[in-house]
Amino acid sequence: MGITIQNVTGNTAVVIWPKMASCADSFYSVMYHPSWNSVLSSYSRKSFHKEERVPTSRSSFVVENLTPLTTYILCVTCQSANPSRDQCRTFHTLQQDAASASSTKKELALGIWLTSSVLLLVIAAILLYGCLHLLCRRRRERPQGRNGTSEEGNGGKTRTKSAAQASRESGAQSQPPQDAEGKDPGGIQLATIIENPLACQEPMGRASKSQESMQTTGQFSATD
Questions:
Q1: Which PROSITE patterns match (predicted)?
Q2: pTM given for the model
Q3: Would you say 27 and 5 are in contact if contact means Cβ atoms under 8 Å apart?
Q4: In what order do the strands lie in the sheet with 60-63?
């Protein structure tokens, strides 16, 4: 079986094999193992490190994720049969070039950057949600506080007005009538005279009698 291995790099290799008539309706098994020792290892499927299944429609396969500067043995068989010596080839991977190393580093850096960006976005979203929730809560509390303050102010004004009205009423009750206090003595005498007209006539009668007595007395004295 003519198996060829081409385009060997530090991490990949391309294996090509001729089609087998016995595997028309089945698959090919591509088995490979690093650091092969033909003396200590046998050609059994259990001795191989990895195994890949390839459809029978294909006659080539790209082996990836190889270790640089390492010797590999690769075998291709029909289905899962144990390989024979003529179905295997050995190859040696090359040193990893600078381009592939830089690309690997770039991929690693890109993965780290994407992971950190996702974490930062999650943290920022959590913080934004917390701030918005706190702001909404404060806005809800402000109208309630204003309503309570206005109610307290209205209640205080009502209480002040009721207290002022109560003090006015008590002052009005405690003060005597202004008509009684504002009257002067003359007004009192005038009221007394109006109420008791006889009391006013009696002194006048007495005065007229005294005048008459004085006149008579004077007449007597003149005659004498």
A1: FN3 (PS50853)
A2: 0.44
A3: no
A4: 4-6, 13-16, 60-63
